[in-house]
Structure formats: structure tokens, C-alpha cells
Amino acid sequence: MNAPPAGPAAPVLVCAFAVTRTPPELAASAAATGHEEGGPLRVLRAGGLCLVVQDVPAALFDEEALAERLNRPDDLERCARAHHRGVEAAARRGPVVPLPMATLYRGDRSAEQAVAAREAVLGALLDRLRGRTEWAVKVHAAGGTANATAAGAPADSGTGAGARGRAYLSRASARRRDRQDAHGRALAEADAVDAELRRYAVDATRHRPQSERLTGRRTPQLINAAYLVEESDSAAFKHALARLTADGRHAAVEVSASGPWIPYSFARWDEAPDIMAPDTTGPSRTEPSRTEPHSTAPERTPPHRTEQRPMKQEARS
């Protein structure tokens, strides 16, 4: 007895992770995991460039479904990690230009055309990133700095209510001045840390400092920076970091770092006005968000941004 004919395949979208000239081997890409709901990673060729992609179910990745999922913190982190796995797989043999999370196309042809049309710009980015990695550095005010109090505030003088009130106001004013002075010192030391690290980097950028809700700390984050470092200078950069945290010159701040990372912060293909722009005849483009190293689990997530932009989808006919 013949088996009944298979029904129509569920519609899929093409999720793009990164552009490279040196794609992973076929076996390696097939073994890599992107989004758990999708198929194996595969490689599309567009001129002299390659695009690492994955087929994902449209029911879970169309604009409406994806917007709903990425508004849930757990799903956002899961998608960010899946995207990073895809970018890591693309980067095994050479530099990559990571694409924003949730860059989606309706088919292979539209994805290939988008890359081929911007081959020169993407190629220039790959050349710039070759042999370079990203280090993420966060500088917080030290605990004692944030909670500075006016140790030398005057004691109560006199016993009357007026005297006690004046003494209270004097102490409050002294505490406020101490906090302002301590914050000013912390900002100056944070800037000094940044200036020192820039000496060992070919480029640097500051992201918006994260809120205390995201960092889980009670002291403010003063600097949330990324540094693009030549691989040959990585040892000197790490030595500078160690020296900054060990010599006691910057007691008003606490410095933490992670890396080396794929240089997400310096592969900003989407900042040029026409790079990977939508087809005028296709569906409207919604630009995906970037996830920052440092989103809901700052020390565990890869360094790409989550809070700067609204999540959008890039889909074409």
C-alpha cells in the first residue's frame, strides 16, 4: 500500500548570522547549532562573500511572533545566545561581519542579493577586522565611593530645636558635597582608565552605561566601553588592565573586563545609510536589535547590544 502524499512543507524564513570570506567547512556548519527551532547552518555565496544562514519556521520568526518572543527576557537571552552561536560558527576560519540579531529574509535569493549589492563595503569591513578582537570593559564607582558620607560633619551644638535643626541641615549638606566630590573623582578616574586602555587599541567606543537593574550592582556604571585590539597587542592590553586594577592608583573605581570577543561593536554595517537596505518593492524592513554583552546577564552574554534599538525584522520577497 502506498503511503499518502506528504502535505505541504511548513513555510520557513532564512535567518542570517554573519558575512565572511572564509566560511566554515560543510561538516562543521551542519554540526553547529543556531536557533534550536531551526535547521542546520548552511552557507550561501554572493560574489566573493559568503553568508552563514539557517532556515527557521516562519510561524515562530515572522514579525509578530518574534516581537512577542523578544519582549520576554528569557526568550530574548535565548535568541541572543543562539545568534552568537551562529556568528561563532561563521568565525572559525577568519573574520566575520556579524549581522544584527533576527536578520531575516524570505528566501536565499533575496539574502544573496542583499550581500552582493554591498560586497565592497562588507569586504572593507572584513579587511579592517582581520586579526583583531574586541575587549569589553566596564567601570563602576567603588562601593565606598558611592556611599561616601560626611565623616567630618559637625556634631550638634546646643540643645534647642533650632540648634538641632541647623546641625541636621549642616550634616546633610556636608554629605551631599562629599557624594558629589566622590562621584567627580570616580568619573575622572574612569576617564583615566579609558584613556590608558585606548593606547593599546586601534579603536574604541563607549556604549550607554547599564542601569543598576541590569548590572545587579548598587554602584553606578560609569563606563561601558569596547576596545578593538590587534591580536598581537592582546598581551599588552591585558597587562594594562591588570596594572590598572592592581596598582591602587584608581581606588575610586572598580574595573572589570571580558574578552577577547568577535568584534561586534566595530562591525557596524547597519550604520551606513544604504548598507543592506530593503528592496523598495519588498515588504517593509524592521531593523533588528543588537544584543550587548551585557544585557540581562552581562558577564555571560556575548558583547553585542540589546537596549540601543527596537527589535525589528528584515524580510524580503
Give your account of this protein's structure.
- This protein is α+β, with helices and mostly antiparallel strands and 317 residues long.
- The protein has 2 domains: 151 residues, no CATH class; 126 residues.
- The chain has 10 helices and 8 strands.
- The two termini are 40 Å apart.
- The relative contact order is 0.17.
Task: Outline the fold blueprint.
Elements: E1 12-20, H1 26-31, E2 41-46, E3 49-57, H2 58-61, H3 63-70, H4 73-90, E4 96-105, H5 108-117, H6 119-129, E5 132-141, H7 143-146, H8 161-198, E6 203-207, H9 212-215, E7 221-230, H10 234-246, E8 253-261
Antiparallel strand pairs: 1-3, 1-4, 2-3, 5-7, 5-8, 6-7
Strand content: 15-25%
The chain-level mean pLDDT equals 78
Q: How many helices in DSSP terms?
A: 10
Extract low-pLDDT stretches. Answer: 148-155, 272-301, 304-317
Give me the secondary-structure category. alpha+beta
Shape assignment: elongated
Beta strands, count: 8
The biggest beta sheet is recorded as:
4 strands, antiparallel
Q: Share of helix among residues?
A: 25-40%
Strand order, main sheet: write it out: 2-3-1-4
Gap between N and C termini: 40 Å
Question: What labels would you give this structure?
Answer:
4-stranded antiparallel beta sheet, disordered C terminus, alpha+beta, 317 residues
Short description:
This protein has 317 residues and is of the alpha+beta class. Helix content is 37%, strand content 21%. It contains ten helices and eight strands.
